[in-house]
Amino acid sequence: MKLTDLKNIFHTELDAIYGKEEVQSFFFILTQAYYKYNRLDLALDPSFAITKEEQEPIFIALDLLKKHKPIQYIIGETEFYGLPFKVDKHTLIPRPETEELVQLIIDCHSEQSEEYQFSILDIGTGTGCIAISLAKNIENAKVYALDVSKEALKKAKQNAELNKINIDFIEADILKNCHSALDAQSTFDIIVSNPPYVRNLEKKQMHDNVLKNEPHLALFVNDDNPLVFYKAITQFAVNNLKPNGELYFEINEYLGQEMIQLLVDNGFDKIELRQDLFGKDRMIKGIKN
Predict the structure, then answer these.
(1) pLDDT, position 211
(2) Shortest CA distance to 130 belongs to which of 158, 167, 89?
(3) How many CA atoms lie within 13 A of 128 on its CB side?
(4) How far apart are the first and last CA of the chain?
(5) I want to staple 131 with a disulfide (CB 3.0 to 4.6 A). Which of 43, 122, 166, 249 is the partner?
(6) Among residues of the chain, what percentage have pLDDT more than 90?
(7) What is the pLDDT of residue 112?
């Protein structure tokens, strides 16, 4: 079968679900992953064909897309901050908004002394995307990454190896006393987290490809205590940040003012609430007094 014919099948089966442009993107992500054949290759050689045996994985992918399986889980990988990351059902798929959080931290330390080794802790690391991206881009950074999920940490370790970065991974629950797990490094220059922050009442706003596939443990919090992770991490930061240490969060777009108050109540200074590219309150930074 010619790839051009296969592309037409994808549009016929999926355009009503995803729209033409996204289906086109899916198709070429799959051809690159399975056949090392991209959009330009097909334009230059529209007669390119694959055997019946070679068709099997892409038709399986087509069926999974019809069931709203995220393309990243189908091929088992994605890109974040220009780096490759493996993903699976135990990890959230990294979002562009989180790249903005990473960029904010990098921008704040672009002119630091090369002699000073920054210590950074990423809480709720998931795929390791924040920790690994910071380690890649901040000179002399010593990075630690914590998660409660053994399966997520396994994937994060694979991603550190994939990107040739040394990270100290810690299995611990930030909602419980995890100080003993951090005995090797008790204070940090930077603590960053993108914890669960979607309230159950917001589930109706989410698409099925997220609700039916991504780990709810890493997504949702109870409506009556939506800042549960932020409170625990902020208190941990009070005790474990160095003087003038920095706390960074990705946040729920509807809870920006509550987050400002949380940091104020815990003695943080120079608090900055930042918007993402869509104009939504998405990042907050505070300095420990």
Answers:
(1) 80
(2) 167
(3) 35
(4) 65
(5) 122
(6) 82
(7) 66
Rg over CA atoms, the chain: 21
Q: Are strands 119-123 and 83-86 parallel, antiparallel or unpaired?
A: unpaired
CA 219 vs. chain centroid, Å, equals 11
257 in helix, strand or coil?
A: helix
**DSSP letter assigned to residue 195:** -
Distance CA 116, CA 139 (A): 9
Torsion of the alpha carbons at 111, 113, 114 and 115, rounded to the nearest 10: -170
Question: Residues 94, 129: contact at Cβ < 8 Å?
Answer: yes
Q: Quick check: 13 and 62 in contact, CB under 8 A?
A: yes
Query: CB count, 10 Å around CB of 240?
Result: 19
Angle 129-137/150-162 helices, nearest 10 degrees? 30
What 3-state DSSP class applies to 2? strand
Supply the pTM of this predicted model: 0.91
Q: Are 121 and 241 in contact (CB under 8 A)?
A: no
Question: Which residues sit opposite 268 in a β-bridge?
Answer: 288
Q: Kindly give the parts of the chain with pLDDT less than 70.
A: 112-114, 177-185
pLDDT of residue 4: 96
Asked whether 192 and 225 are in contact (CB, 8 A), the reply is no
Contact 77, 86 (CB under 8 A): yes
CA distance 33 to 117: 38
Sheet arrangement for strand 168-171: 168-171, 142-147, 119-123, 188-193, 241-250, 281-288, 268-275
pLDDT at position 284: 98
Q: Are 5 and 49 in contact (CB under 8 A)?
A: no
Residues 234-269: pLDDT tens digits? 999 999 999 999 999 999 999 999 999 999 999 999
